[in-house]
Amino acid sequence: MEKGILLESGTNELELVEFEVGQNKYGINVIKVKEIIQPLPITTIPHSHSFVEGIIQLRGEVLPVVSMEKVLGYPSNLTKSTGKYIVTEFNRQKVVFHVDNVSQIHRISWQDIEKPSTMVHDDHTRVIGVVKHADDMILILDFESIMVEINPESGIHVDQVRKLGKRERSNKKIVIAEDSPLLRKLLHETLTEAGYENIDSFENGELALNYLLSLREAGTLKEDVQIVITDIEMPQMDGHHLTRRIKEEKELSTLPVIIFSSLITEDLKHKGEKVGAEAQVSKPEIEKLVQLIDQHIK
Question: Where does this protein have coiled-coil stretches (predicted)?
C-alpha cells in the first residue's frame, strides 16, 4: 500500500486509512496496515468463530479473514469476492479485515479524535474514537479487543504472571495510559496479581500528563508515582507524545516510561527510542512487562 510521509516521533499525529462498512466510515491506523488488496479465494474453516469467514493464502502465508460486517452487526451484503481486504499486522499477528471499500488516507492529530458520548460508549463498545471530517464522521475501532474476542489466547491473562510467585509491590505506584476499557481492566487485574496494587489508570496521554503535572505542582511526584506505562494509540494525546512531554519536563524526566502497545515491532521501535522511553513491549507480553517494571521501578 502506498503510505504517506513517515511521521516524526512524538508529534501527536497519525495517518488514518478510511474504510467503509454499511453506511458508516471507519478508520484504522496506517501503521497497522500492510497492504490493501482485492478479495482472494477463501477456504472456510468448520467451527471457527462467527466473525471469521475463513482463511486465504497470501504470498505463502495463511491468514484469517475477518468480516467487519459481522463484527459490527451489519446485514451481510458482501460476497467472498466483493469489497476490499485490509491486510494488517499488530499484536504480533497478521489478520485480514474484509470491508466494503477503502477510500483514502487522512493525516490528523490525535487531539482531533474525540471520545464517543457516554450514551453510546461503554466497556464493550467497538468504537473508541470519533473524527469529524468535513460533513462526515470517521469512527475509530478497538481492533485489539476485536481480536481478543475472536482469539482469547491473544489477550492478556492473569495466569501469565502467576508463575512469578507471591511478591510484595503494593507500595509502588504505577500510572497507566490506555484508551481501551477492556485492556485497562485486564492490565489492572494482571498487575494487581503481580503485586502492583497501587495503580491509577487514564484513558489517554493528556489526562495522564495532567495528573503527573498536578503532582509536580503539589511537590509529591516522587512519592506518588514510580513508573508510567503507556499505550501508543490514544485520542487527545498518543503515547509517543506523552513520553516526549514527560522527558522534556525537568521534574518528570527521571520518571521511567514503558511503552506497552500492539504497534511495537523491530521496524517501529526507533520511534519509542527517539522520544526517550526506557523500554518497549508488544501486547500481550504481560510477563515481560512485569519484569521490565521490576527492573526500572525505584
Answer: none
* Position 277, amino acid: A
Q: Is the pTM of this model over 0.85?
A: no
Q: Which residues contact 210 (CB under 8 A, 6 or more apart)?
A: none
Q: How many CA atoms lie within 13 A of 214 on its CB side?
A: 6
List the helix and strand counts (H, then E) for the chain.
Answer: 9, 16
Give yes or no for residue 154 having a pLDDT over 90. Answer: no
Q: Establish whether domains 13-152 and 155-296 are of one fold.
A: no
Could you tell me which CATH number the domain at 155-296 has?
3.40.50.2300
What's the pLDDT at 289?
Answer: 92
Distance CA 86, CA 102 (A): 8
Torsion angle defined by CA atoms of residues 73, 79, 85 and 86, in that order, rounded to the nearest 10 degrees: 0
What torsion do the CA atoms of 73, 76, 80, 83 make, to the nearest 10 degrees? -80
Distance (Å, whole) CA 87 – CA 58:
10
Residue 42 has pLDDT above 90, yes or no: yes
Say what angle helices 181-193 and 143-150 make with each other, to 10 degrees. Answer: 70
- What is the overall mean pLDDT for the chain? 87
Which residue, chain included where needed, has cell 512519592?
Answer: 223
Closest to 10 (Cα-Cα) out of 280, 237, 268: 237
> Quick check: 144 and 283 in contact, CB under 8 A?
yes
Residue boundaries of the structural domains of the chain: 13-152, 155-296
Q: Report helix, strand or coil for 29.
A: strand
- Residue 102 has φ and ψ, to the nearest 5°, of -120, 125
Q: Which one of 3.30.160.250, 2.40.40.20, 3.40.50.300, 2.40.50.180 gives the CATH number of domain 13-152?
A: 2.40.50.180
d(CA 187, CA 91): 15
For residues 251 and 278, the answer to whether their CB atoms sit within 8 Å is no
